[in-house]
Design goal:
about 220 residues; six-stranded mixed beta sheet; four-stranded antiparallel beta sheet; 7 helices
Length: about 220
């Protein structure tokens, strides 16, 4: 499903290149649940954003199903991302000028879904996450935990083929975190590929495989 070959990413500081990813080779199969772990600065989030096609300043080869991502134009990458990938960010990335309802509608707008059907999907998702009474509020009016829940709801609402999650439970209490991880497990069992970055051994235990990064290198892979 996802094939990475010799992926490298660096930042230039004067004449020097600071490598964040170094020669990363990785294969992720459809329906896998993969965890990326490592110390701070290891390149975990950078790798996730490369896979998510947000960051395009890397070199190497990236194949998403039969698409050679490294050969696509920016607009083509954006279309591929919007139709196939859902994101959960540690810092939420909700749109402050939109209500909760409108934030959830954004991923659906990239699909060919009628307005009446979008309304039904959004209302079902609001009920699923117990957010119905918050649908007309703006993110700034909500706690960090609620904003994270909305971020998760937004990621899953359009049934993406892949969910990329960067510390998905970092702002949730333990009961909420367990609910989110169990939701990811259920989605994975239904066919969604999950790739998460986490420092949590508890969260990592939900996955099939753990990839350890250090200094931008894949140093270890462990099957759970």
């Amino acid at each position: 499903m996802i094939t990475l070959r010799n992926i490298e990413r660096y930042f230039e500081y004067g004449p020097e290149k600071n490598y964040v990813l170094r020669g990363v080779n990785l294969d992720i199969e459809e329906r896998e649940f993969v965890t990326i772990m490592g110390p701070s600065g290891a390149g975990k989030s950078t790798l996730l954003h490369a896979i998510g096609m947000h960051d395009t300043s890397w070199t190497g080869e990236y194949y998403f199903f039969d698409q050679a991502v490294h050969k696509l134009k920016p607009k083509e990458r954006a279309e591929l991302r919007n139709k196939n990938i859902g994101f959960v960010f540690q810092s939420y990335h909700l749109l402050d000028q939109l209500t909760v309802y409108e934030n959830l509608e954004v991923p659906l707008s990239y699909r060919d879904i009628k307005k009446s059907q979008r309304d039904s999907i959004i209302n079902e998702t609001l009920a699923r996450f117990q957010l119905t009474d918050k649908k007309n509020l703006y993110p700034s009016r909500l706690s960090g935990g609620l904003q994270q829940l909305i971020g998760v709801a937004r990621a899953v609402i359009a049934n993406p083929k892949v969910i990329l999650a960067d510390e998905p439970t970092g702002n949730l209490h333990s009961a909420q975190a367990r609910e989110i991880m169990e939701l990811f497990t259920k989605l994975n069992q239904q066919g969604t590929t999950i790739i998460q970055v986490t420092h949590s051994e508890t969260n990592a235990a939900y996955s099939h495989r753990i990839i350890q990064l250090a200094d931008g290198l894949v140093v270890k892979e462990t099957a759970e």
